[in-house]
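Quick check before the chapter quiz. The format below is the same one you will see on the exam, so make sure you can read both the input and the output lines.
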Amino acid sequence: MKFIIKSPVDKTIIRDDVQKERFFSEDDPHARQKLIDWWDQDKIENARVLVIGAGAIGNETLKNLALLGFRNILICDMDTIEASNLSRTVLFGRRDVGKYKARAAAQRTMELALAQDPKIDYFIGDIITELGSGVYRYFDIILGCLDNNKTRYHVDNMCAQVGKIWINAGIKELALSVEVYDSSTSACYHCYKPENTSLERDPCLEYKKRKAEAGKVATVQIASAIVSALQVQEAVKVITGKGAAIGQKLFFQGTTNEYEKINLRVNPECIHPYLKINEVIECEQLSNRITLRSFLRYVSKKANSGKNATIILDRTFIAYERCKQCGKIIKIFKPSGVLYDDEIYCSECNPNGYNRCLVVKDVLKLHEITADAPSEILDLTLEAIGIPKLHIVCVRDENGEHKYYELTGDKSRLMPKTFGKK
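Here is the expected output.
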């Protein structure tokens, strides 16, 4: 039997199976997987992986990535660890209850990592409102370890914009599924779940509930372990070019041990293939901490978008509302995505801050911003109007053409271990 082995000086040599054993070292933690003829450990160690969700599935996925030799990972989660999580989270123990999942998972993943010089960053926050679309550009694969469809739709949108493959994993009781999405060549999540195909902004009056009911899914660690193994297996195939199950759903029903592979059908009305941003202008000088005035000045003078540049917001900023009872103008100054229902009240009609007053009509809700906006708007930072770190901001220039500016100055702030100062 013949094998192709890379020598220490990167020359390809033909050896037989006896000679191959001379290159096998028990001191190498990845020696066994390197025996797979198509395996490429260098690609795995150099790949950048974005893991969204550090719960039951995320724990197993991070453990698998660390043991396989992945070394560049960003972990995202906004929640804290509860005692009820512990039976399904291999990275957490009783001592971790109350800690942020993303931070604790990053620490444990660092301890498990077998690759040299691992760079494990973490992000604590809502990825929909606080994590910019530019983040996705810097990763070779995105792994969704989520428990809700709203966030899955958002991840699908972001990956479509920047042309990235993402792998969704889900569990319920002993059932599990993995789907590999590439909107540029096959079905995307919006095709698979066509009941939510709208890419429009959230309606302004759909305020967040302060005490929203959390969706609890019945499941066990067994399902999360299996689904994570399938998810990471497909990720390895994507990274090494082995041929992942793109456009397919891998489904396993554990109660009956039934396994099924389903080809996902492309929805011809889905616009995701046309959302891709082909040219992103990286701006090291820009971050979401600068004011709107400074941003407009930059794109007008430095980036040749003309004096009449217009910022096109992909989220609604609510400046003012009107009380339907007394007609008073209420100053809001918040993006709709982070506005809670108990914050919308009139201080005259409801001095104690309860019984929300709905508005009669819009007074000022911004979808576009120009240099002619009021000074109190222009003096706000991009962050204040809801533009997250490392976001790609759409600007319409004076000729009516759209350009896309990345807030690249946020890169090292968001991922210090990966992109911080050497």
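If your answer matched, good. The chain has 13 helices and 16 strands.
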